[in-house]
Amino acid sequence: MAYSFDNIENFRQLGGLVREDGARVKDGVLLRSGHLGAASERDLAHLADMGLCLVIDMRDRHERERHPDRPVPGAENVWLPPVPDLEAVIPIKSTVPHEVRTVFHEFYRLLSLHPVAIDAYAAFFQKLLASEGWPVLWHCTQGKDRTGVGAMLLLSALGFDQETVIGEYLRTNEFARTQLEGMRLARASEEEIALMAEVFPVFETNARYWFDCVRIEYGSVENYLEMALNLDPGDIARLEQYYLE
Q1: Catalytic residue among 31, 140, 180, 228
Q2: Are 204 and 175 in contact (CB under 8 A)?
Q3: Where are the domains of the chain?
Q4: What CATH number was assigned to the domain covering residues 12-243?
Q5: Phi-psi region of 133 (alpha: psi -120 to 50; beta: other; left: phi over 0)
Q6: What is the 3-state secondary structure (H, E, C) of 115-136?
Q7: Which one, out of 48, 75, 167, 192, has a CA that is 20 to 30 A from the CA of 131?
Q8: What is the rounded distance in angstroms from the CA atom of residue 26 to the CA atom of residue 243?
Q9: Quick check: is 140 catalytic?
Q10: pLDDT, tens only, 112-168
């Protein structure tokens, strides 16, 4: 199912992904994107028409103040930041291109193991469970890292194998290519393009590192879901009931 929006970036759904046993994610219920601060009236109406009941904003306070989400009619907006102060963790403006990948690598360790991040993702699952299968959208600023970890956790909880989970994560690079091409057409400097070529995409090494951090600390992703995020077998069964067919 394709979606077209005026001013919502990196929007896509998880619907259509097929598990090894043939179960698939339902269409139109698990949605991810960049922020809604620039959403047009048409964009908001489209989300409302989809039956969206919940928007989960994973940005930090500063991002949220700079570009507050425009409200979607009929949808609750909740704030669950895995990282309270992003610029303290990823000082992009003072980082040169060859250092960015190292900075992001460390960011993924934080997203897997920091207590604040764990609490945010645990709350993310509780909100999903409380939504009882109605359409939910979660986002950060560009919808790639914090949002991507949310998607990796959710697909793992739904029983998808690691390669499928990483494949979905890497779909953000379709959006990244468009962004970089836009910069080139706008005649941005080579220095700016080189920096953003490290910032806009996602990298498979980061996704695999996130899985490694979880397994080293907890033994398995399943243990992490249970021990860190407090999901019991009944919760997993409800998620499968809500989101798989």
Answers
A1: 140
A2: no
A3: 12-243
A4: 3.90.190.10
A5: left
A6: HHHHHHHHHHHHHHHHHCCCCE
A7: 167
A8: 6
A9: yes
A10: 999 999 999 999 999 999 999 999 999 999 999 999 999 999 999 999 999 999 999
